[in-house]
Design brief:
The structure is a homodimer. With about 325 residues, chain A is an alpha/beta fold. The first copy, chain A, is built from 14 helices and 14 strands. Chain A is about 40% helix and about 15% strand.
Chain lengths: ~325, ~325
């Protein structure tokens, strides 16, 4: 069971995150900020499997912040087993989206409460609390939003493309089904209102960050925070011309017609991000990023273990510190 | 995958069954009858757990007929694991009704199709088919029926009493919630119409057999079969004054005010059963059972392994044979 809520002290930070990259950065930030961290997580890659509601980005962040993520695989829960999945296959269920036995419990509890009419946000917070997560992970919206990608095979659900088709088809267009009916939740709006800094994780700009920005109310909330002097930093998920994980590099080529560089990522964030963080291997791109109007931080952004996660998080906190009083944050 | 349907040959048999006792007898009968066996199974002890629809009697019979039942425990699936259940407990879910990882897959598939509006019967038949079951196991009705027992703690759902309270409270009354809106399915009615014999498994008369009989249309279908000369046999689940498994002996005392004997079981079946099967240890009760108007068969009814299951089944088939042409059945 989690400890009782502690009095808030020091500065609060909101991070916008997708799956693995967002989870690692959030984990590093949580090491510094504990319960002063709020993660607003993409829900565009949520999907239903076997009648159960699965929220891959939320759960990746949750398992990571709970310290039970499977680092060997890069997804799922440490020590996971697949007995139920094997039986589902025996019943003829398509199991290309592989769900472990422990992971299934998350989806079962979530689905029961969701079908009973509860909002996604309190359900998510209770799951996190049960696993002892100190930060808060907020779904970007309670409404169902489903990211779809146009390929030469037609429109595919995001996970069909990402897991089922191994990200092989070229992505020609992205849309967020349901986004028009979505609204920012009171919890997300309150997090932005009380934020002392906002950080965009090194997640995919097109399918992790863009859906969060597209939720009606969120961009306005970020703009309002910036109007109060709250800095917004973003970390490039493209390092040395390649995505650290996933298809972001190929999407930059096919969707933006650009070479996949940190500059191309920065271009997606013009107008709402102040500070752009590049990896040291991309130091020669710093000037081009500055030309786009960003302040810059060049540092080692590879998060390969707890220490490097915390180090990058600390460097970002230091960089947004002059405005927000980092000393009390870290 | 199951084989293609084979032409029916020889006589067909319908068995009325609850859980473990019914499953064992059905398994013995399947050894003789293969796909000429239909099991009409109690659904009164179905329940929802974690938002999933669980059908304990159906699944016990299904796993047993599929040969994957866990004989060491007397319930569930051989080699079963409980990783999901442990995670459900971590989320604060009550897990007194323990669901294994493989078993969960059954409930997940069933629940998905059921929420999509499908009838329980085709869902059940597909599950059985996927596991290679040769006989057909038909839910007694597609409608939700929930057996409840009145105790000094008030009315309890059947599984709350049976599993949650370890059958400890005295049962003062039994009711089948929803039975008034239930109807016999076309599949169940067709099975009785084409049956050459009907057998009542050594299941609990009050909470396994009675709910089946209470489904509007089933008693009439049995009466119609008897009118055509179809024999109905029943096997006592009380042997030597004690229930082989479960609380039937205590229910006979508390509900019928009788000593728990095979005679008391037989009394429950007066008027719709022709042949009553007693265990050899109860041979001295044969005359009393005959006095109630039954033909009798005295034989070893304990089913401790495949051989004794098949032996009892064969003895029952022989006993109903003169009317139904057993020779072609076995």
């Amino acid at each position: 069971m989690p400890d009782a809520p502690r009095p808030r002290s020091g500065a609060a930070l909101v991070v916008l995150a997708g799956g693995v990259g967002g989870a690692k950065l959030a984990h590093g930030l949580q090491a510094h900020l504990d319960d002063r961290l709020t993660v607003v997580v993409n829900t565009g890659d949520d999907l239903e499997r076997h009648g159960l509601l699965v929220c891959p980005d939320h759960d990746t962040v949750m398992y990571t912040l709970a310290g039970i993520d499977n680092r060997e695989w890069g997804w799922g829960i440490a020590g996971e087993t697949f007995a139920a999945s094997e039986m589902l296959a025996r019943y003829g269920e398509p199991t290309w989206f592989r769900l472990g036995d422990r992971d299934l419990a998350t989806h079962i509890v979530r689905t029961r409460r969701w079908r009973d009419g509860e909002r996604m946000t309190p359900i998510a917070l209770d799951l996190q609390s049960a696993l002892g997560v100190r930060a808060r992970i907020l779904p970007m919206t309670d409404a169902p939003v489903r990211t779809q990608v146009l390929t030469d095979e037609g429109w595919l659900g995001f996970q069909t493309y990402f897991v089922g088709r191994h990200q092989e088809p070229e992505v020609l267009e992205v849309r967020f089904e349901g986004i028009g009916s979505a609204t920012a939740t009171p919890e997300v709006l309150a997090a932005f209102e009380t934020a002392d800094a906002i950080v965009v994780a090194p997640s995919n700009p097109f399918v992790s960050v863009a859906p969060i920005l597209a939720v009606p109310g969120i961009r306005a909330a970020i703009d309002a925070a910036r109007g109060r002097g709250v800095p917004v930093a973003a970390i490039s998920g493209i390092v040395g011309g390649r995505a650290i994980k996933g298809p972001a590099d190929r999407m930059i080529a096919s969707l933006a017609g650009e070479a996949p560089t940190a500059v191309a990522v920065a271009r997606r964030y013009v107008g709402w991000v102040d500070l752009f963080v590049l990896d040291a291997v991309d130091a020669e791109l710093e000037a081009a990023v500055r030309d786009l109007g960003f302040a810059t931080l060049v540092t080692d952004t590879m998060m390969v273990d707890d220490a490097t996660r915390a180090r990058l998080a600390g460097a970002v906190l230091d960089a947004v510190g002059p405005t927000t009083g980092t000393t009390s944050m870290v």
